[in-house]
Amino acid sequence: MKRVLNILVGCLLIFSMNSCLYHNLGELENSSDKKMTNVDYTYRFLYNDTIQKGTANQEILEGRVCEVIFNKSLEAVEENGVPGFKTTITHDLNSIQKAGPSGSVTKEMLYEMFKEQIAQDGLTKLWVYVSISDAAIISPLDGAPVLGAPGNFTEDRFYRVTAADGSAQDYVLKTIKAF
Q1: CB count, 10 Å around CB of 12?
Q2: What is the pLDDT of residues 10-21, one digit of tens each?
Q3: Which residues fall within 8 angstroms of residue 40, CB to CB, at 6 or more apart?
Q4: Sorting pLDDT into bands at 50, 70 and 90, what band is 55?
Q5: Three state DSSP letters for 91-114
Q6: Concatenated DSSP letters of 3-22
Q7: What is the reported pLDDT for 24?
Q8: Sign of the dihedral defined by the CA atoms of residues 66, 47, 92, 149, in that order
Q9: Higher pLDDT, 3 or 106
C-alpha cells in the first residue's frame, strides 16, 4: 500500500510540475524578435590563496578565479545604419568579486593584482555577455570574438542576432576604456 501511495504521489508531482512549464507562455517558435538589449563586461584572472594560514589546517589553493565586473555607461548608437551600443567601462574596488572561502588574499590585494594585469591586457581579454530576445541566437561577424569567452574588444565588433523565424539584425559593440 505504501509503495502504491509513493507511486501516486510521484505521478502527481510530475504532472503538477510539468503543467507549470507551459502556463501563460506565448509561442516563440515563429518569433521575429531579434533585439539586443544589454551588454556586460568582465575580466578574469587566476591567483593563489592560503586558507587558514599559520594553522595546522593551512591549505594553499592554486588557480582561484577572481572575476572583475566592470562598471559601465551604456549608450545606444547607430553606425552606417547598424544599431548597437557604445559602452564605457570603468572599475573600482567594488568591481572585484572574490568567491569561495576567505583566505589570506584580500579584496584590496586582488584589486592591485587586477590593476597590474589590466594595464598590460587593456581590452584584449574581456569576457562580454549580451542580452538578446528569447528564442534568438547570436553569431559573431567579421572576426569578432565569441561572446562568453575572453576576447579582444580594442576595435568595434559586429554581431548578428537571428530570430526564431530566420530574420536577422546586425549590431555593433563599441567598447571605450575609461581607466
Answers
A1: 10
A2: 655 555 555 445
A3: 69, 70, 72, 128, 129, 130
A4: confident
A5: CCHHHEEECCCCCCCCHHHHHHHH
A6: HHHHHHHHHHHHHHHHHHHH
A7: 59
A8: negative
A9: 106
Among 80, 81, 79, 83, which Cα is nearest to 39's? 83
**Residue written as cell 569576457?**
127
User: Left, alpha or beta for 57 (phi > 0: left; psi -120 to 50: alpha)?
Assistant: alpha
Question: Whole-model pTM?
Answer: 0.79
C-alpha cell of residue 98: 572574490
Interval 36-42 mean pLDDT: 97
Grid look-up 573600482 returns: 92
39-70 core/surface letters (b: 16 or more CB in 10 A; e: else): bebbbebebebebeeeeeeeeeeeebebbbbb
With H, G, I as helix, E, B as strand and everything else as coil, classify residue 27.
coil
- CA–CA gap between residue 10 and residue 12 (Å, rounded): 5
